[in-house]
Design a protein that fits this description.
Blueprint (H helix, E strand, L loop, with lengths): L2 H13 L4 E6 L2 E6 L34 E4 L4 E4 L15 E2 L4 E7 L2 E6 L4 E6 L6 E2 L4 E5 L1
Antiparallel strand pairs: 1-2, 3-10, 4-6, 4-9, 5-8, 6-7, 8-10
Length: 143
């Protein structure tokens, strides 16, 4: 494993909420960890073991008529389409169901589906597609 890959992995750990990362390439294993995060931990909703989807929101629970923000749970490359050349998962004005995939964030070749936290209509959508997003960046709003 070359030095540039190791630096990239260190940067990834520094910008994310993870505390440990182990990567093996050929006969080389690199373990990167931190004992105290540089930033306070971001609360995430509980996940079931089989779930790979993550959603973070700012709207208070029980808020029926207010918009709910969908924020990036991790640093990575945002994809608004399931594959190049295909239509986006959602556009402004679309009605969505709770759990429906809105985006994919690619981080270290892992594709994380970002799902709608509730049913509603997309009122705001990020213009980023194929670019980097930081943890906590606003991706969409659902009313």
């Amino acid at each position: 494993m070359d030095l540039s890959k190791i630096k990239t992995l260190i940067d990834f750990v520094g910008r994310s909420n993870i505390t440990e990362l182990t990567v093996t390439e050929k006969d080389v294993t690199v373990r990167i960890f931190r004992t105290s995060p540089a930033e306070p931990a971001v609360a995430e909703p509980p996940r079931t073991p089989e779930s790979t989807e993550s959603v973070v929101s700012d709207a208070p629970s029980g808020a029926e008529k207010t918009s709910q923000a969908v924020k990036a749970p991790v640093f990575g490359v945002l994809h608004r389409t399931p594959a190049p050349g295909e239509p986006p998962f959602v556009v402004v004005g679309d009605a969505v169901e709770e759990g429906q995939t809105l985006f994919i964030i690619e981080a270290m070749k892992v594709f994380n589906k970002i799902a709608a936290p509730r049913a509603g209509r997309i009122t705001r959508l990020t213009e980023i597609d194929g670019g980097e997003v930081e943890t906590g960046d606003l991706l969409a709003e659902i009313a």
